[in-house]
Amino acid sequence: MTPFWFDISDLWIGTFFYGIYLVLFCICIYILLRRPHNLGNIVLLITAVVLFTLSTVQAVINLILGSAEIDNLNIAFDQLEAAGNIIYGVNNVVADGLVIYRCYSIWEKNIYVVILPIISLLVTSVFGVDLRLPSSPFFALSFATNVLVTALTAGRIWWLYRKARVYLKTDVQRRYLSAIAIIVESGVLYSATVLAYLILGAIPGAEIAQGPIFQMLTQVMGIAPTLIIVRVGLGVNVQTSSRNTSTDVEKGRHF
């Protein structure tokens, strides 16, 4: 495949995934606006808007850069590319910050659990914003952060489920399992895309295929946490349940 067709595929893939994100974002906003305007939902709403706005700007920049390469347009290529990279880094911080916050909430606001992910996020943000640094550590750290936070969050919910399933009704059990599934699926969605990007970058001669994967990453970065927001908006939330699990278990022992 020639570089021209790679440029075309970049635009197609970027547009396709942006369309998916647009639909998901609209559903997300619709759900959150219909729910009570408490602090938690307001935070989710603001985060969703910020993520989508950054992804939209990134998509526009990628579209301009891709069109310029295809049509040989004379534009400030380096400046636009640098701006796109910075926006990507900021978007990554917001997206990872959201999943770390969810993990923190599931662990009943135990700050010690998320110290390592927070440190990893801070280091990742430095590599993402400072254009003088290599990009590989940025993607590797982002991958590690997502895998760690996904494991911590899903592991906590699974532990709560195992601890209290004897005393839980069937529908509540399904809620726990559904929460585990969506967290793992969202984490795998982004982590697998990052891993593919890193693998292609490590294979000699395969670097050109990183372009389409990067276009996917630009949108998947927002799609993955937005999926969690949608499920939280639909009521798939075990945060409150996790705070009451210990009490439920204690009550069950008296029966």
From TrEMBL:
Keywords: Membrane, Transmembrane, Transmembrane helix. The keyword Membrane applies. The chain crosses the membrane at residues 12-33, 42-65, 85-104, 111-129, 135-155, 176-200, 212-234. The keyword Transmembrane helix applies. This is Uncharacterized protein. It comes from Mycena alexandri. The lineage of its organism: Eukaryota, Fungi, Dikarya, Basidiomycota, Agaricomycotina.
